[in-house]
Specification:
Length: 473
């Protein structure tokens, strides 16, 4: 059986889950479910990033120890994903002792290989990103992604990793289409340009940050939080029983702001430790909320539970997937979600199901073909999902099976025909077959509703007790 290993970034524990995190986790879930549906053995990983300066600060603000703070917040992520019917096989926490052990071993290997040396870091650090910043990366003297006070001067003795040594190898891998692992293509050009512009070695330990994993060769230092975090993808395959074979990962999903870490630093660390590289990274863009960056200070953060309360689990999943920010940023907001929900789900799919059930109750459907992923068009659907073109993939299903059935009903108007009129039977049977197909394709996107639709049209058309998507005001 083919194996497929997919990951999301592990989210910082100082925040609560919002729709930014949700879109990556949901996209990974859709891909994971689709690969299971294709008969592959899937390992789907998500989790939380719990060390570092900003988590320690957040804990202090709440009067808790960092560990107590993490233990309080991590379950909120786990619960959010459970409520959204996310099918992750494991939830990794970087404070898990087993992860810490793998981090120490891997770094010791890098150290033993001669790729680590002591140096002095003098420059900027953004605690929001937990990242060192060059002057060029600052706008008006601070990191553009976070409030100005998060960018501070640092001067500390650190251990450095010889990142620059790996630049020729990484460039060669990316430039060769057979070994390139960066998708979409626009991101590949971005990284190649940055690699050509010159790369310096990076600090991989922090002297003054206590909340972290001690560097195995110098316990006065802790491992820089990003180095610790990236290793989660590998450590999970060592922690969870029977998953060793899943390394190298097939797909790392991530947002655009963490591209460099996932396509250069991570690869260099693995090359140094002589571990196979992940096969593909896929980077998506960002959600904007009503034209603005989502942030606590703007008060425009949307949480996944809010969407579930308004639209139900599968409604929320559909809306997030349909507005997924693939290559470009995607502007969303509650009023737009409501419009889409009513247009696509209540008035279109929901209405179709209820019309076909009402008009066709009792009609036999055994003769309609069982859907499968072998047909040409369906390969297109799988490819679109694999390339994170979720909106296009769902649009394809709606156009071919939902809109076309609604059009057919409106043309033939079976409600004006006698129940035994062959034309009426024919059109309703065809709509039932289309709905079975739609449900088959939408399984990974709306697992419960799809199951319900398949059952409604299995063997014969059954009565619908209550509407699938009640209209909302
Ligand atoms: N902890 C690091 C990742 C370490 S992975 C080894 C981190 N965490 S985070 O909590 O800031 O999450 C960042 C990720 O959340 C982004 O890469 C993206 O997947 C998702 N999003 C956060 N905000 C987002 C939007 N506004 N829109 C879409 N996704 C975004 O970085």
């Amino acid at each position: 059986m083919d194996k497929f290993y997919i990951t999301t970034p592990i989210y910082y524990i100082n925040d609560v889950p919002h729709i930014g995190h949700t879109c990556t986790t949901l996209a990974a879930d859709i891909i994971a479910r689709l690969h299971r549906q294709l008969g592959e053995e899937v390992f789907f990983l998500t989790g939380t990033d719990e060390h570092g300066e900003k988590v320690a600060e957040a804990a202090q603000k709440e009067g808790l120890s960092p560990q107590e703070f993490c233990d309080k917040i991590a379950p909120r992520f786990e619960e959010a994903w459970k409520n959204l019917n996310i099918s992750n096989d494991f939830f990794i926490r970087t404070t898990d002792k087993r992860h810490e052990k793998v981090v120490s071993e891997l770094l010791q290997k890098i150290y033993d290989g001669g790729d680590v040396y002591k140096g002095k870091y003098e420059g900027w650090y953004c605690t929001g990103c937990e990242a060192f910043k060059t002057d060029k990366e600052l706008v008006d003297g601070h990191c553009p992604l976070h409030p100005p006070e998060k960018t501070v001067q640092k001067s500390e003795e650190n251990w450095f990793f010889k990142l620059s040594k790996y630049v020729p190898k990484i460039t060669e891998l990316i430039e060769n289409d057979k070994t390139n692992y960066i998708f979409p293509d626009s991101k590949k050009s971005e990284i190649l340009a940055k690699l050509k512009a010159g790369v310096t070695d990076i600090s991989i330990t922090r002297e003054k940050v206590k909340w972290g994993i001690p560097a195995p060769w110098d316990t006065n230092h802790t491992i820089y939080v990003w180095i610790d975090a990236l290793i989660n993808y590998y450590s999970a395959t060592r922690i969870v029983e029977g998953k060793t074979e899943f390394w190298p990962a097939d797909l790392h999903l991530l947002g655009k702001e963490i591209l460099w870490f996932h396509t250069v630093i991570w690869q260099a660390m693995l090359l140094s430790a002589k571990i196979e590289l992940p096969k593909r990274t896929y980077t998506h863009s960002f959600y904007m909320i009503d034209g603005q960056k989502m942030s606590k200070s703007q008060g425009n953060v949307i949480g996944p539970q809010h969407l579930i309360d308004l639209f139900g689990v599968d409604g929320a999943r559909y809306l997030v997937a349909r507005s997924f920010p693939s290559e470009n940023d995607s502007d969303v907001g509650i009023s737009r979600f409501k419009e889409k929900y009513n247009a696509y789900l209540a008035n279109n799919l929901g209405n179709l199901v209820s019309r076909v059930c009402k008009l066709g109750e009792g009609l036999k459907t055994q003769s309609t073909p069982t859907p499968s992923f072998d047909k040409e068009g369906s390969k297109n659907f799988v490819n679109l999902i694999d390339q994170l073109k979720l909106d296009e993939a769902i649009g394809w299903v709606f156009e071919n099976f939902v809109d076309s059935s609604n059009n057919l009903l409106n043309q033939v108007t079976p409600w004006k025909l006698e129940p035994d009129d062959p034309k009426r039977i024919e059109v309703l049977t065809e709509c039932a077959a289309n709905l079975k197909k739609a449900a088959y394709y939408l399984q990974s996107i709306m697992p419960d509703i799809s199951k319900k639709i398949s059952e409604l049209f299995d063997e014969e058309i059954k009565p619908l007790e209550s509407g699938l998507f009640p209209r909302i005001a």
